[in-house]
Every structure is written in structure tokens, then in C-alpha cells.
Design a protein that fits this description.
The complex is a heterodimer of chains A (about 220) and B (about 210). Chain A has about 220 residues and is mainly α. Chain A has 6 helices and 2 strands; from the N terminus they run αααααββα. In chain A, helix 1 runs parallel beside helix 3 and helix 2 packs across helix 3. The longest helix of chain B is centred in the middle third of the chain and has 34 residues. The chains are: A mainly alpha (about 220), B mainly alpha (about 210).
């Protein structure tokens, strides 16, 4: 090993990074070469002197906190961090284009139909009107029918209510009549009983009076 | 718990309380080494504070892209070194602009004379024993004297204790290039310190 060659190996040797074989070679060279030995010792001293500059305490105390993220930046970050393969990118791109085309065709009211072996393509900024009017006519017709049915049902229900009411009224009247009949009979019977009672009282009084008169007449004779 | 474990915990739930706590543990572990690395690289405390924060913001954002979690150390130094290089480039751009102005006003000559004052005071008194603080300043200045490409390697090796393979990985260079830069950087520092009459004796007296 020459003095020039040793320079690189000397660095490994100085910082204890050389493999055993190189270390042996370096040691052997340093023992024999005064110049290189002097160089090694000087470099070793320099290294030692450099160590006198001690580490400082920055007193930074950095602390990372969980930041509340807006949903937009979260989505953006997600997309930025996402490592999509080329095919995946293509898929995303085509999906985006498809959605775009659908959106534009919806805006333009695009219609594609198949009639008698031909494709018919139609776009318009306004929605097709004829179909809409037919629909509204049908709706109006159905509404009218519904209205009529509703009226009929209303009338029928009113009729039935009226009949029910009349029937109940008649039943009530007959019931009142019957009750009145019963009451009148009871009053009649009561009156008869009252009359009989008084009649019997009068008869008895008559008897008593006659008897009394008879007893009174006797002493006059 | 190793850095790899913490990274795994963070990546499995970056928004969960556990994930955030794992990341903060990682920050707590690396805050001091990062700050000191950047401070030695750029020489300014304000820059070092700002850049340390930026390093961790970058780590937070891109940790998912780190494939080999055992290489986190090289990776974080790579981020820090790149940020430092950007700052140096920006400053150089600003400096070159101001130099043009100086040339116009004829003040460039005066500036080159001013460089002499960069020599540390202690160097003017060879027999004086330097205090630890003075020595720190001297070393700071000495490191600024050597080329940036050598400086970063010397800092990573001497102060951050990285292996040559790790430095090579962080800087994206071959291991032999790193060792060669280390050798030339260390030799240059040896010469500068000898010029300023700073040796280990001056340091040892103070201990």
C-alpha cells in the first residue's frame, strides 16, 4: 500500500470502520512510514479538537397536533397520496369522461331511438313538448274521472245518512208514542183507584151518618 | 421502540392519537441532532430553527414514501442537507446581486480587506488558553472556511456520527467520494487550526 493509496483507508481506520484485513495493512504501513504516521496523528488530533464544539439544546420542543381538515383539502390530499397505476389512471379518466358526456347529453336532452332499422338521434336545449302535453291530458282526464267518482260517492253517502236519520227519527217517535200510551193508562188507572177510594169513603160516611141519625131519632119518641 | 416501530405506528394511523404521539416521539428524538446538524452547516441559529421545523414538516408529508424504514437516519439527513443547500443557493444568489452593486461603487476592494478580520481573536494570542466558548466560535469559523461539499461530510461524520455508507446514501454519492472529501476536509481543518495556533493543548488546558 502506497502513501497515496492509504489516504482513503486512513479514514476508515480513523473512525473504526475498516475491515480486519485493511486494518492490518494500514497498521503495517503506519509502523513503517513516519510521514503517514505523523499525518494520521495530526488528523486524529484535529478530529478530537473538532469534538470540543458540543451539541446545543435548541429548546424547540416541536409538537405536531392533529389538525382539523376541510373536506376539500382532505380529498385533495387523498388524491395526491394515491399512487394509481397507469391502467387505473386510464380507468379514472374514462369514468370522468363518461360522466361528463352523460351530463352534457342530459343538458341537451339527447334522445336516441331505434325505428325500423334506423337510429334516430335528437338533441334540444328544451325538453320534448309533445310527450309532455299527452301526459298532461291524460292526467287531466284521470283527474276528472276521479272528481266524478268522488261526487257520486259523496251523494250516495249523503243519501244514506239522510235515510238513517229518518229511520231513527221514526223509531224515536213510535217509542215516544208508546211511552205516552203507557203513561196515560197508568194515570187513568190511578184516577179510577182514587175515585173508588173516595166513593167507598163517602159510602162509609153515609152509613155512619145514617146510623147516627137513627140513634138520635129514637130518644124523641 | 425503534424509529422503524414509531414510523410503522404513525403510518398505520396518521390521524389517530397513537399515530400523532408516535410521530411526536420521533420528532423529540431527532429534534436536537437535526438542529445541531443544520446549525453547523449554515452557522445561524435562526436558520437552524426554521429549517429544523421544515425538515419535520417534510418528514410528516413524505414519510409514507420511505420504502426502507431502517434507513430513516440517512433519509432525514438527506432532507436536511437538501434544505440547507437550497438556503445556501438562495443566499449566494442574493450575494452575487449585492456584489455587482459593490463592484460598481468600487467597494469590492474594501470588502476583500475586511476578510482579514474573520480571523478569530484567539489566534492573535498564541499563548492564550482559549475557553470552551471561544473554541466553539473558532471551530465554527474554521468549518466555514472549508468548501461546503467537504464541510457537510465532516459535520455528518464528526458531530452526527454517521457511518460513511450512511453519509453516501444521504448525499447520493459513492462511499469513496465521501471518504475522499472527509480526508481533504479534515486536512484543510488541520491546516487552518494550525495556522490559528489552535491545537488540542489549548483545548485541554481548559477542561
Amino acid at each position: 500500500m502506497t502513501c497515496d493509496e492509504i489516504k482513503i483507508s486512513l479514514m476508515d481506520f480513523l473512525y473504526n470502520e475498516s475491515d480486519p484485513e485493511t486494518e492490518k495493512l494500514v497498521r503495517a504501513h503506519l509502523q513503517n512510514c513516519v510521514a503517514c504516521r505523523g499525518e494520521y496523528e495530526a488528523l486524529s488530533r484535529t478530529s478530537l479538537t473538532l469534538k470540543a464544539w458540543e451539541n446545543e439544546d435548541p429548546r424547540l420542543h416541536l409538537v405536531f397536533v392533529k389538525e382539523s381538515q376541510s373536506w376539500l383539502s382532505a380529498v385533495k390530499e387523498k388524491f395526491e397520496n394515491m399512487r394509481v397505476p397507469a391502467m387505473g389512471k386510464l380507468a379514472w379518466l374514462s369514468a370522468g369522461v363518461a360522466i361528463g358526456v352523460l351530463f352534457i347529453s342530459a343538458l341537451l336532452n339527447t334522445e336516441i331511438s331505434y325505428h325500423n332499422g334506423n337510429f334516430v338521434y335528437r338533441t334540444s336545449l328544451l325538453p320534448r313538448s309533445s310527450g309532455a302535453t299527452a301526459d298532461s291530458q291524460l292526467v287531466a282526464q284521470i283527474q276528472q274521472e276521479l272528481n266524478e267518482k268522488y261526487q257520486q260517492m259523496l251523494l250516495a253517502s249523503q243519501q244514506q245518512q239522510r235515510e238513517d236519520f229518518n229511520r231513527t227519527l221514526a223509531q224515536f217517535a213510535t217509542e215516544v208514542d208508546r211511552q205516552r200510551q203507557i203513561d196515560l193508562t197508568l194515570v187513568d188507572r190511578g184516577l179510577n183507584e182514587f175515585q173508588q177510594h173516595y166513593n167507598s169513603r163517602f159510602e162509609r160516611n153515609d152509613q155512619i151518618l145514617n146510623q147516627f141519625l137513627r140513634t138520635v131519632k129514637l130518644p124523641q119518641k | 421502540m425503534t424509529d422503524g416501530d414509531l414510523i410503522h405506528k404513525f403510518l398505520t394511523g396518521p390521524n389517530s392519537a397513537e399515530g400523532v404521539s408516535a410521530f411526536n416521539t420521533l420528532v423529540w428524538r431527532w429534534e436536537k441532532p437535526m438542529y445541531n446538524f443544520i446549525l453547523r452547516y449554515l452557522g445561524k441559529r435562526d436558520d437552524a430553527r426554521d429549517l429544523t421545523q421544515q425538515v419535520f414538516i417534510k418528514v410528516y408529508r413524505h414519510l409514507a414514501r420511505l420504502k426502507d424504514r431502517e434507513r430513516f437516519s440517512s433519509w432525514i439527513y438527506q432532507i436536511a442537507a437538501n434544505l440547507c443547500r437550497d438556503v445556501i443557493k438562495q443566499k449566494r444568489r442574493r450575494q452575487s446581486f449585492s456584489l455587482e452593486n459593490l463592484q460598481e461603487s468600487g467597494a469590492l476592494e474594501a470588502a476583500s480587506h475586511a476578510e482579514l478580520t474573520l480571523l478569530p481573536d484567539a489566534a492573535l494570542h498564541p499563548d492564550r488558553v482559549v475557553s470552551r466558548n471561544e473554541l466553539k466560535e473558532i471551530l465554527e469559523k474554521a468549518l466555514r472556511e472549508i468548501p461546503e461539499e467537504q464541510r457537510v461530510v465532516v459535520i455528518m461524520k464528526e458531530y452526527q456520527g454517521l457511518k460513511f455508507t450512511e453519509i453516501a446514501e444521504a448525499l447520493g454519492l459513492s462511499v469513496n467520494t465521501i471518504k475522499s472529501r472527509m480526508y481533504y476536509g479534515l486536512s484543510a481543518l488541520k491546516k487552518i487550526l494550525a495556522q490559528w495556533q489552535i491545537n488540542e493543548e489549548a483545548m485541554l488546558y481548559d477542561v
